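Box 3.1. Reading complex inputs
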Amino acid sequence: MSRRERFWLQNLWLAVAGAIVLALVLAVGPGQFARAVASLVESTIRPLPPRIWREFAALYWVVIGVAAGALIAWPLFSGLGVGFIRWFFGGPLYTGERLRGALVALVVANALVALGVRAVRDAIRTDVFAEMSRRERRAVIATEEFPELIAQLEEVGFSQWRGNGLVLRSSSEEIGWPALRAEHLVLARRAWPRRTYFRTTPGCALEAIDRDWLASHRIRWIVFDCNGEFGFLRIEREPQGDAQ
Amino acid sequence: MIALTLVFAAALLLGAGVLRLSGLRAEPLVLELGLGWILGSGLVGLLVFASGLMDVELTGASLATLLLACGLVGGGLWGMSRTRRPPSLGARPASPLDWVSVGAILLFIGLVLLTIATVPLTSFDARMIWSAHARLIADGAVYPPPELFDPAFVIGHPQYPPLVPLIEALALSLEAAPESLVFRAVPFAFYPATLLVLGGEVLPRERRWGWPLLAAWALMPTLVIYEEGAADAGVVDLPMGAFILAAAVILSRAFERDRLGLFGLAGVLAACAAYTKNEGLVLGVLLGVALIARAGRPRKSAAIYFATWAVFLLPWLVVRSQLAGAFEEGYLERLLAGQIALAKAPAVLWEMASRLFLAPARSGLFWWLVVGWIATAGSKRLPLVRRFGWIIGAYLVIVFGVYLISPWPGTEQVELSFLRVLLQVSPLALWAVAGALTFRGPAGEESMRAETQS
C-alpha cells in the first residue's frame, strides 16, 4: 500500500463527513444551511441572558472550531504537533483509534464549554440572589411564570389567607391542552400546605357547587379563572363550621 | 444535612448488604458502592411504599425506625458476607486528557453541590409533580394520600409513580434538610451513584478512553445546565436511568456467574424503575425481552426476572388504577381510539434527530460518540445484544410512536420531553458501547472469544 493510499484509507471517515456536509449544503441550499447553522448557534446560547450570550456563542464555536480544525489537519501535523498529540492522549493514535480520539476530544471540549456556561449562569444567579432572603428568591423564580396572576394574588393579600382553596373555571371554556393555569401556580408556589381543588361550572357560577362539598373540603378561598380574567373571593367560616 | 446524609448511608448499607446476599461479591469497590446506593435507595422507597399500604403512619419516628432497621440489616448482611478483598479497578488517570476529564468531573460536581445548597428548586415539573407529591405524603403522613383519589384535587399527574417522592417524604419527615435542598439532593444522589457504576464498568474495559468517556457522560450539557432535566433539577429521569443501568449490569453478572438469584435482583431493580417513572415499565419489559434474546430462548432466568418484576410491580399498578386521572395524556385511550397523527411524523422525526445529534448545548456530542463507538466496535453483537444496547433503539421507536399519539400540538412534546428521554437511556448507552473493541491481555482475549462464540 502506498503512502498516499494509506493516507486516504486512514482518513476515510473525514472524507465521508465532508461528503455528508457537502450533500447537505447542496440539498438544502447554502442560504438554508447557513440559517440552520445560525439556529444551532442560537440553541447553544439560549440558556444565557442576551447581554452576554453573544460572547459565549463566539467562544463556544471558537473552541469547537479549533478542535475540529486541529483534527482535520491531523495528518499534516509533524514534529511538535505529533509530539503534543502523543503527550495529550498518552501515546500514539493508531488507525482504528483516530475516530475515537477525535470523538472523545470533541465531546470533552464541548462539555468544558458547557461547564463554562454553567459557571457563568451560576455566578449571575448568585449575584442576583445575593441580597435576597430564601423566600424572596422563590418569589423571583415564581414570577418568571404567570406574573399577572402573581401580582394580583399579592394585591389581595393571598399569603395571609387560611383554609383550603378552589380554582373555579367555566365548563364551557375551551382551554385546550395543557391546562397549566391558575390551579398549577396556586398549588406549586403559593398555597402549600393548604389544599387546592379545581372545579368547572356553567358560567363560572359558584352557586352550582354544593355547599356540603365546599364545607367537607374546608374551602375558605376561591380563585375565579374565568374567560381570561382572575377574581378572588374569601369565604368566612360559618359559626358552626368545621374545625380546620 | 447530617440527617440527609444518614438517609443515604442507610440506603447504601441496605443495598450493599442485599447485593452480597444475592451473590454479587468480589466486585470493584466503586461498583459495589454505586450499585448498593441505587439498589438501597430503591428498596428504602419500596419499604416506605409497603409501610403506607399496611396503614403504618409515616411519621418521623416510624420512618426513623425503618431507616435504622435498614441500616442495621444492611450492615449486618454486608459484614457477614465479607469474604475477600474486592479487586482494584487498576485504571488510574494516566494521560493529560484523563486528568482534564477527572478535573472537569470534580469541578462540575462542586458546582452542582453549590447550586443545590444555594438555589431554590426552579424546574416547573419538579415543583408541580414530584415535590408536590412528597409534600403531600409528608404532610398527611399516609400513603397513598386521600387527596390523590379526589379528582377535584389539584396536583400534577396524580398517577405518576411515587418512589422518589416517597424517599423525599422520608427525608422531609425526619426534617433532614430544608425542603428545596431535599427536592434537589434526593434525585441528585443517583448521579454520583451512576458515575460509580459506570466507573466500575467502563474504566477496566476502556484502558485508554475510560476517563474521557466518563466525562463525556457526566458533563453532558443536559446534565450540566438544563433546569428541566439536569442531575440537580429535582426531576426523576436520571434516577430511572440509574435503575435501568443497574438492572442491566446485574443481568450481565447473572449471565457470567449463572446465578438465578441475580436475575431476580435485576427484576427488582427494573420494578424500581417503573416505580420511579412510567417509562420504566416499557424499559423493564424491553430489558426482559433483551434477556430472552441474549439467552437464545425463554428460560428459567427470564421467568425469574419477569416474575420478580411483576410481583414487586403489582401493588403499585393496583394503587395506580384507583388514583384520580387528572391532567393525564391518556395515551392508551387515544391509541385505542385510533388518534394517531401520522401527518406530523416527519416533523417529529426531525425534531428528535436534531435533539440527538444537532444540539451541542443540550445533548452535547454524546450520541455521536455512542454511534461512533458502535461503528468502530469489533463485534456489533457485543454492545447491541450481549449488553442490551438494541433496546435503546427500540425504546426511541416507541417514544416516536407515543409522540404521534400525544395530545400536544405539533412537536411541542418532543421539545419539552425528548432531552429527558435521552437522559434516561444515556447511562445504559455508555455502558453498552464501552469496551466493545479493546480487549487486551490474556483475560481480555478469553472474554473476546467468549463474546464472539456465543
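In summary: Confidence is low (pLDDT under 50) at residues 47-52, 176-180 of chain A.
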